[in-house]
Structure formats: C-alpha cells, structure tokens
Design a protein that fits this description.
CATH topology of the largest domain: FAD/NAD(P)-binding domain
CATH class of the largest domain: Alpha Beta
Length: 410
C-alpha cells in the first residue's frame, strides 16, 4: 500500500489526508503544532463562502461553488452547527453601485442562485440598521465553527486508519529517486538547530504547510518565485447591545483589485457579532500580536522586493490599513459607514488571524490557488479564501493532482 504524507494539519491538509485514505492509501499527517488547525483554520471569521467574488473560470471559483455544497452536506451529516443565513453586500454610497452590479454578474457567472440587487428600502427590511444606497443579497452564504470541522476531520482520519504526528516540525525533505524522507523535530531548540528527532518515509508527499509552504518547498529543492507574505487581520467583538441589531452578515462592496474583502460584520455561530478584519503586514508568520515579532519572518518580508512594489502600487490602501490597525476610532468609523452608531466603545478586542498571502516579485498578489509539482511531491503554494469553506472540494482536486506527481516519479 502506497504511503502518503501530508505536511500540515490545517483544514486543507486534514481534508486531503481524509480524501487520500478514502482512495486506499496509507496516510500520515505531520503537524508542527500540538493540535491540528491551530493557525488559519481557527483564526478566521467562520463564514461559509459561496463564490461571489472570484474570477469566473478560476479554480477557486469552481472550488467555492462545489465547496459550500460539500461542506454544508458534511456539517449536516456530522451534526456540526452551521446556518445558511445569507448576507448583504452593501453599496454605502451611490458610486459603489456599478461595482455592486458587476458583482451580481460575476456571481451569476459562477453559478450562484437567488442573487438580487436591492434598493436601500428593500435592504433595510433585511438589515434595518444599515446605511446604504443599495445592496446585493447573497442568500447562499452562511456561518460555521471551523474548529469543530477540523475536529471532525481528525476523527475521520483516525476512523479510516490514518495517523497524526503532532508537535512534529519538518526540518528536511530528501528524495532518493523513489522515496521521500521527511526529517522531523519537536518545535523548539532541536528544530532551531536543525537536529532531527525522527524521520518518516513516504511514496508521496502533499505540502499543505500554509504559512510555511514556501519554506517547505525550498527544503524539497524547489525555488518558488512567489513568497508568502503574512498579513495580520484584527477582529473586534461588538458590544452585546448590538446583538439582534445586526441580523446576519454585512459586507462592503470590495475593491476589485485586492483579495481583501474589507471590514465586515459577521454574526457568529456561537453567538455575538464580530467585526473585521483589517489587513496589515504581520511582524511574523505566527505573530498574532505586534508584541511577539519573529525577526527572521519580518526580515524575510521587508527584504522581499514584491512587498515594496505592492505598497508602491497601493499607497492609499497601505496607509488606510495602517490607521485601521492602530486606531480603534478609525476602525469604528469604517464600520459605521455600513452600520451607523457604532462607536469605539462598542469594540472589544477579539481574535486576530494571519493570512498566508502569496505575492509575486512584482508586487502582484496571487489571487488563485497555486500548485507546484515535483516527482512524488505536490506543493500547495497559495490556498486563499475560500480555502476553509472549500476544503473538501480542494482535497478531492489535490488527491488527483498528487497522483500526477506519483506518475512523474514512476
């Protein structure tokens, strides 16, 4: 029986391991954290995305449409709390209406159903507290707890006979022409010194390393042109007095040139209202606060020409996100464009997340999934939103692509 190793225990890595087990492979997941889903998988807004924003014909547009259907079915089957509650994409001012209408056409091209542009009066019947010139109703969006989804994936892997090696950081990848040898070390002093504490052999490898996927690829001898640049997003919780006044999901019309959807309001499946996120350079790939910088990661980012070219292309966006990051007053003002009356005192610090954004040397953000191939190893070098929603659909695609790498090594 062929042995596949999946590097990374986030939602996509776990879903891929589950898919490979169902296809008859022996599978081991290696994850450097003591628990699966410790980073992007559990540091997000918990939204089920249906594929409104994505370029028609792109892989992530297809994955989103397939993904929300498979994820919803999975949640029903496993009894995971979720809700297809719908959302409004709000054009706060009249100049945003043409972009809203373009979103409508894009959503239709991606196969979404039930989309409709609403007048201000119609939108306020759904969300009475909003301020808008118009809104796009998206009935297929929803909310879920992705932490519970990750736990269900882990149980599936165990039930199917797969193994999980936790607290096992990959520190080397070597190939002898047929077999990959993955050197492992417990995170901390041994890994920092490059000292292996264990090793595992595999016929094939799938690199789902998320925030560290490019570094894992380099261990395997690949030299990706793109770099992972970590963007930190801060979320805030709205004061309890707003519960019931924000019904479901309220999003702004996004800037079509950027992958960030803007500051939005989300009713959480566990209760409460979350607001955010901003998007600003993180001081490390796992630095969830600015008080815990990782100097290696920070140096990696600021010496990458693409970052400076990106900021040169979008100076106003960069400055705006800087103000959002360090000023609760500015953040409250941004949110109150959509829902008037929200004050800095209504914002209570919530979780923060870090987006593993692949960036090209020219400063262009990689918008779609990015896969790279070597004999016996598949690298997932960019897995943007809707990565969580579409993890089951992505896993099915990666299982097929992984077989191609096996054919390369035969």
């Amino acid at each position: 029986m062929a042995h596949a190793v999946v590097v990374g225990g986030g939602l996509i890595g776990l879903a891929t391991a589950r898919e490979l087990l169902q296809r008859g492979l022996k599978v081991t997941v290696v994850e450097k954290e003591p628990r699966p889903g410790a980073h992007q998988s559990s540091h997000n807004s918990g939204v089920l995305h249906c594929g409104l924003y994505y370029q028609p014909g792109s892989l992530k547009a297809r994955m989103a449409v397939e993904g929300i259907a498979s994820m919803t079915h999975y949640c029903v089957k496993k009894g995971i709390p979720h809700e297809i509650c719908g959302k409004l994409v709000v054009a706060a001012d009249p100049p945003e209406i043409p972009r809203m209408e373009a979103l409508l056409e894009r959503g239709k091209a991606n196969g979404l159903v039930g989309l409709e542009c609403l007048t201000s009066e119609q939108a306020k019947r759904i969300e009475p507290g909003i301020r808008c010139a118009g809104a796009l109703r998206v009935p297929q969006e929803g909310i879920v707890d992705y932490g519970l989804v990750a736990r269900a994936y882990v149980q599936d892997i165990k039930d199917l006979g797969g193994k999980l090696w936790l607290a096992s950081k990959v520190c080397s990848l070597e190939n002898n022409g047929k077999i990959w040898r993955i050197g492992l070390a417990a995170p901390g002093s041994q890994a920092a010194k490059g000292q292996e504490s264990d090793a595992i052999l595999a016929d094939s490898v799938v690199n789902c390393g998320g925030l560290h996927c490019d570094r894992i690829a380099m261990m395997a001898g690949l030299r990706p042109a793109n770099r992972i640049v970590p963007f930190r997003g801060q979320y805030w919780k709205l004061h309890s007095r707003w519960e019931g006044r924000v019904k479901n999901l309220i999003y702004p019309v996004p800037n079509p040139e950027l992958p960030f959807l803007g500051v939005h309001l989300t009713r959480m499946i566990q209760g409460g209202i979350e607001v955010g996120p901003n998007a600003f350079l993180a001081f490390g790939r796992e630095s969830y606060t600015f008080f815990q910088p990782n100097l290696r990661d920070l140096w990696d980012a600021i010496t990458f020409p693409g970052l400076w070219r990106f900021m040169g292309k979008y100076p106003k966006v960069t400055l705006h996100e800087l103000f959002l990051t360090f000023s609760r007053k500015v953040f409250a003002r941004e949110v109150s464009r959509l829902v008037p009356g929200i004050t800095p005192g209504d914002l209570q610090l919530g979780l923060s997340g870090i987006r593993a954004q692949a960036m090209r040397p020219d400063g262009t953000l990689v918008q779609d999934f990015d896969l790279a191939y070597q004999p016996g190893i598949l690298h997932v070098l960019n897995a943007p939103s809707p990565g969580a929603t579409a993890s089951l659909a992505i896993a099915s695609h990666l299982a097929l692509e992984s077989q191609k790498t096996m054919d390369m090594s035969s």
